[in-house]
């Protein structure tokens, strides 16, 4: 019996000619639940979290899972039980945290466009902190909190103006970006916030981008943020917590890609800098998303048709851009592997879905030996897939299964057309 883990995916392995997640044969899951089907490994999520927990051993730290990466209730429940707080970006996400049994006192609220209603809702539940992204938002939050009869705990998201060297759509820490407050305006804004009766300054935060594969932008951003902490505290405004955001990348396995640093190794470097600058005993917060769930998930899909062409061969599968939007949105790469490898000679295919868009592709120029009816696994599909999925083409969203050892739990039923039409109404007459 061979048992070969896939590189970068320690909980996905080939055993006896069949691909498994932990102890569960993926072909069995496809047969039971149909495809497209997201499959997550509980152990992979907890291992990814453990790397951060090791990194912060002996420190005062709160890990707030950035739940937009994957906001399925059972996933949130897993992280809540493991002690995580949550970084939310909408009132809807707060409701998900509550439904999953998460602690609102460990919730931080990010995002450039919080509405008054969302602010009130978050104040009602006593969240830990609002990460404020503009001067205008600060004033509105002050007004809402005073009317609410409470004080909103705030952190200002500063834009350290460092280049995270990632895809422009997922780079957030540069000057031309909509996120955060410019470094040279932050001190004045802190002084302003400290004078507002509806606010209580508790922290500072930054988030420089996503799928970052290099430690240096983090180290640069930390220096810039600590320079500001020096200045804000010199102005008599104490900063209780420092939040370094999320953004650590994962291995997607594209040819020539850089491997990101491990979370514990990265934090060793960052903590050394914090210690050297005298901030090692502050309450530290982080907001990782992708790195906690990305490589814990894959998407099973069935090959529907092979369509050979003069310029391209197409492998048409039943998963599409509405299930796996990252290739269409960011030209992102996902590894695609057969569940049961065939001995036949492979051909080169573009793997595409049924959606009526040329942008509906999952992988380009992939060498595959496949036949209609075979199943493929699209790897690294735990983050920014289901949570970004849509009903385009009136396609129901996929089902989701969480594997725990030998057990497989259905955590989201496949969405049918009826569910999609709920809430719609026909014209009268
Ligand atoms: C999206 C986001 C994160 C998480 O980013 P990842 O790349 O998934 O780790 C953290 N903080 C904020 C403010 C975000 O918008």
UniProtKB/TrEMBL annotation:
Keywords: Amino-acid biosynthesis, Decarboxylase, Lyase, Lysine biosynthesis, Pyridoxal phosphate. This is Diaminopimelate decarboxylase. Pathway: Amino-acid biosynthesis; L-lysine biosynthesis via DAP pathway; L-lysine from DL-2,6-diaminopimelate: step 1/1. Residues 49-293 form the Orn/DAP/Arg decarboxylase 2 N-terminal domain. Pfam families: Orn_Arg_deC_N (PF02784). Its EC number is 4.1.1.20. It is an enzyme of class 4 (lyase). The active site is at 356 (proton donor). One of its GO terms (molecular function) is pyridoxal phosphate binding. Belongs to the Orn/Lys/Arg decarboxylase class-II family. LysA subfamily. It comes from Pseudorhodoferax soli. Substrate binds at residues 290, 326, 330, 357, 384. It catalyses: meso-2,6-diaminopimelate + H(+) = L-lysine + CO2. One of its GO terms (biological process) is lysine biosynthetic process via diaminopimelate. Its cofactor is pyridoxal 5'-phosphate. Pyridoxal 5'-phosphate binds at residues 247, 287-290, 384. The modification N6-(pyridoxal phosphate)lysine is found at residue 68. The gene is lysA.
């Amino acid at each position: 019996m061979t048992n070969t883990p896939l590189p970068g995916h320690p909980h996905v392995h080939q055993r006896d000619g069949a691909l498994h997640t932990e102890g569960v044969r993926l072909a069995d899951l496809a047969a039971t639940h149909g495809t497209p089907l997201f499959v997550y490994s509980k152990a992979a999520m907890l291992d990814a979290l453990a790397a951060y927990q090791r990194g912060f051993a002996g420190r005062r730290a709160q890990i707030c899972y950035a739940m937009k990466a994957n906001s399925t209730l059972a996933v949130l429940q897993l992280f809540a039980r493991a002690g995580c707080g949550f970084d939310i970006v909408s009132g809807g996400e707060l409701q998900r945290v509550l439904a999953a049994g998460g602690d609102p006192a460990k919730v931080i609220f990010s995002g450039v466009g919080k509405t008054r209603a969302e602010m009130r809702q978050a104040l009602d539940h006593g969240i830990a902190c609002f990460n404020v992204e503009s001067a205008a938002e600060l004033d509105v939050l002050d007004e809402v909190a005073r009317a609410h009869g409470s004080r909103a705990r705030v952190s200002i998201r500063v834009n350290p103006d460092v280049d995270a060297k990632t895809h422009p759509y997922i780079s957030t820490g540069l000057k031309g970006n909509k996120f955060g407050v410019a470094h040279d305006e932050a001190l004045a804004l802190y002084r302003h916030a400290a004078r507002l009766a509806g606010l209580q300054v508790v922290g500072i935060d930054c988030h420089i981008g996503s799928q970052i594969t290099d430690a240096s932008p983090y180290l640069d951003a930390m220096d810039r943020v600590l320079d500001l902490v020096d200045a804000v505290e010199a102005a008599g405004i104490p900063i209780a917590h420092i939040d370094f955001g999320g953004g650590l990348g994962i291995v997607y396995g594209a040819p020539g890609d850089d491997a990101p640093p491990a979370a514990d190794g990265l934090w060793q470097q960052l903590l050394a800098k914090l210690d050297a600058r005298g901030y090692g005993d502050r309450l530290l917060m982080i907001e990782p998303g992708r790195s906690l769930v990305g490589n814990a998930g894959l998407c099973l899909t069935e090959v529907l048709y092979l369509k050979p062409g003069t310029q391209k061969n197409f492998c048409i599968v039943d998963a599409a851009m509405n299930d796996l939007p990252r290739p269409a949105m960011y030209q992102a790469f996902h590894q695609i592997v057969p569940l049961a490898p065939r001995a036949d000679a492979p051909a080169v295919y573009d793997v595409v879905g049924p959606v009526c868009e040329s942008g509906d592709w999952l992988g380009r120029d992939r060498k595959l030996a496949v036949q209609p009816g075979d199943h493929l696994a699209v790897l690294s599909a735990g983050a920014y897939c289901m949570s970004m999925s849509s009903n385009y083409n009136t396609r129901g969203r996929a089902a989701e299964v969480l594997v725990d050892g030998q057990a497989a739990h259905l955590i989201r039923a496949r969405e049918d057309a009826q569910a999609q039409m709920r809430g719609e109404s026909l014209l009268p007459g």
